[in-house]
Amino acid sequence: MTIVGHFINGQHVADDQRTQEVFDPALGTATKRVALASAATVTAAIASAEAAFPAWRQTPPAKRARIMFRYKQLLEDNAERLCALITAEHGKVLSDAMGELQRGIENVEYACYAPELLKGEHSKNVGPAIDSWSEFQPLGVVAGITPFNFPAMVPLWMWPLAVVCGNTFILKPSEKTPSSTLLLAELALQAGLPPGVLNVVNGDKEAVDTLLDSPVVQAVSFVGSTPIAESIYTRGCAAGKRVQALGGAKNHAVVMPDADLDNAVSALMGAAYGSCGERCMAIPVVVAVGDAAGDALAQRLTAELSRMKVGPGTVAGNDMGPLVTGAHWEKVRGYVDAGVGEGATLVVDGRNVQVAGGAEGFFLGGCLFDRVTPEMSIYRDEIFGPVLCIVRVQSLDEAIALIDAHEYGNGTCIFTRDGEAARYFTDRIKVGMVGVNVPLPVPVAFHSFGGWKRSLFGDLGAYGPDGVRFYTRRKTITQRWPSSGVREQAVFTFPSNQ
Ligand code: NAD
Questions:
Q1: Pocket of ligand 1 from Cβ distances under 6 Å
Q2: Atom of ligand 1 at shortest distance to CA of 229?
Q3: At residue 389, what are phi and psi to the nearest 5 degrees?
Q4: Residue of 112, 280, 389, 413 marked catalytic
Q5: Single pTM value for the model
Q6: What's the CATH fold of domain 252-436?
Q7: Nearest protein Cα to ligand 1, atom 36
């Protein structure tokens, strides 16, 4: 069986003393194994990134950006290969994998702006013959730790921007979906990225802890579940590193009584069940304002679910693939059982889904609960599966209070035809990314991505302007070139330009 290894200093490295199964979720069987890096291998990756840093930091930003232009082209040329690997390990349908990759490529396009992004700020004559400027210097060796659900996009949120800012990088992808991420690194070398600037170590807690404990690693970007995000943030900060840790979510969509229901239902189908609900910006909760909206949503979503095609991601025309692993399938199914036990109405039960062609993977059909209440576990917890809960409220204020009381604050949206209601909602809601008639308001690459509350630990979001700030350190230089040779008197007052 193939063992997916590591990529250090531009070369494949085995270190497969410890390995773990990688599944094809549509088959329900392990098709590969992934090597779990030892502390020694991670230390070698750190050494490789450290050795590459001095020359890379001195490489002009325009030259770094040119590599990114070539990289974008290589990603496009290899899109089918990359997406086949994503679908084979994650299970999402190929068109969805293409969407993910395209979003990742947009982050590479943003990284191509490096010379513009790193221009700094300049002020002439801040005092007599004194000029001052701020420049943005790289941090050094930076690490990124990524989740299974976007094996191409989330790594591309991180390392292209980090390296065009002059850093060198160690990426630790999810052990569930390692292969496409490894190919991303091979293509970067092909694009001209010097060996050691980007290193990939596959692994688990041992690899992550080695990165967190290394004094060489200056900063850590993490994306994953909230408990791990919080522990990585705490441990990394205690070790004096800069850390941004993006966590889990439970995103609510509010449907107002005046909403265009046809369009809202179409949008909700994609947002709730796309990628089998395994997206941090998925919509697992719809908040119906008024019982008429609740009844109409339950009825129309039921009709749509009967048409949704569930099956292998490789088969064109399928809307939803399987869950990522058997363990995750058990967990999500357990939540559906729990919802029934807690008294919610299971309007559509996807537990015994039949998949065309008799595929035997980790498939779960779309599930729809109505009359879900805030104390239920299916409402509180991030399920990360194809389970949509309808919660009924009587006013927009009640919807806002409900959303604000939830521990997560990643994304939300409102469906309405009323501009005033939309403005009221976007102004008040305590959530980082908000859509108005847009179900998945994932910011484009030249904005930044970040939730509020327990969906983000740290001050800066991912990619875009926040990413540039995260991957650089400001240095401000104040410079004077006296024009006369006259010796000046010592001055004991604090300098000002009065
Ligand atoms: P996860 O937290 O299990 O794993 C994420 C990464 O952390 C992986 O690389 C994994 O190997 C590593 N890891 C796992 N346990 C660890 C431990 N004990 N110590 C150190 N490292 C550990 O998350 P996942 O299941 O891969 O991904 C799904 C989660 O990610 C969901 O909660 C989802 O909401 C979240 N997510 C968030 C965003 C966002 O931008 N906020 C984006 C995508 C996914």
A1: 145-150, 154, 172, 174-175, 204-205, 208, 223-225, 228, 246-249, 280, 382, 384, 410, 451, 455
A2: 2
A3: -110, 130
A4: 280
A5: 0.97
A6: Aldehyde Dehydrogenase; Chain A, domain 2 (3.40.309)
A7: 224
Please confirm, yes or no, whether 280 is among the known catalytic residues.
yes
Nearest-atom number in ligand 1 for the CA of 225 is: 32
Query: pLDDT (tens digit, 9 = 90+) per residue, 292-315?
Result: 999 999 999 999 999 999 999 999
As assigned by CATH, the class of the 3-247+455-477 domain is alpha beta
Tell which wins on pLDDT, 485 or 110: 110
Predicted local confidence at residue 497, as pLDDT: 74
| Mean local confidence (pLDDT), 249-277 | 98
Tens of pLDDT, residues 429-453: 999 999 999 999 999 999 999 999 9
- Sequence ranges of the domains in the chain: 3-247+455-477, 252-436
